[in-house]
Structures are given as C-alpha cells and as structure tokens.
Amino acid sequence: VQLVESGGGLVQAGGSLRLSCAVSGITFSNYNMAWHRQAPGKQRELVAVITSGSGTNYADSVKGRFTISRDNAKNMVYLQMNSLKSEDTAVYYCAVGAGATYRGQGTQVTVSS
User: Fold this and answer.
1) 2 bridge partner residues
2) Phi and psi of 12, rounded to 5°?
3) pLDDT, tens digit, for every residue of 33-82?
4) Rounded to whole angstroms, how far apart are CA atoms 18 and 75?
5) 89 to each of 1, 53, 66, 71, how far by Cα in Å?
C-alpha cells in the first residue's frame, strides 16, 4: 500500500491550500480514507474522514473550513483547506481509515500569522 501526499506549503493566515493524496495497492473505492495532522509537541489529530460511500466527518476545529473529497476513478483523496489559521500548522497525513492502518509520509503545512 502506498500513499503519497502533495500540496503542502507556506501560506498566510486566511489563505487556502489543497492537499492531494495518490493511493495505490488497495481497491481504493472500498475503503474509508482520512486526513490526520500532527503539530510539533502535540498528539496526532484526526482532521477529516470520507467513507467509501462519500459520507464525510470533520474535527470540530476544521468544520466549515476544510472539505475532504475523493475521486475513485483516479485513486485520489483531497483536502481543501480554506480560512487557514496559525493553529492549522502541522504535518498532514493521508491515511487508509480513521485508524490510519496505512499512511503516507506527510506534507508540511505552515500558516504564518
């Protein structure tokens, strides 16, 4: 199983970023997918989940600002992040399922205030 994230970077507070994750090695459409994040010195946080049926759930801290989506034809999962805040600064990981059975190497998101 391989997950490769992209799209991270440095952005000013209030800005937007779109993270992408390319997934291989699984029957992608059968699995729930998730985005997690981990800031320095903090525990990993589950940010968003999208089910195999495209239902979604979000952490309260990002609800209304972040949108998770998937493209089963391309084996891709996305995280659109709007109205970014400094507290969103973290390494963001794409994962298979909320429990992160498999996850990628992560992509750094830094929000400057």
Assistant:
1) 24
2) -80, 155
3) 999 999 999 999 999 999 999 999 999 999 999 999 999 999 999 999 99
4) 16
5) 27, 29, 14, 26
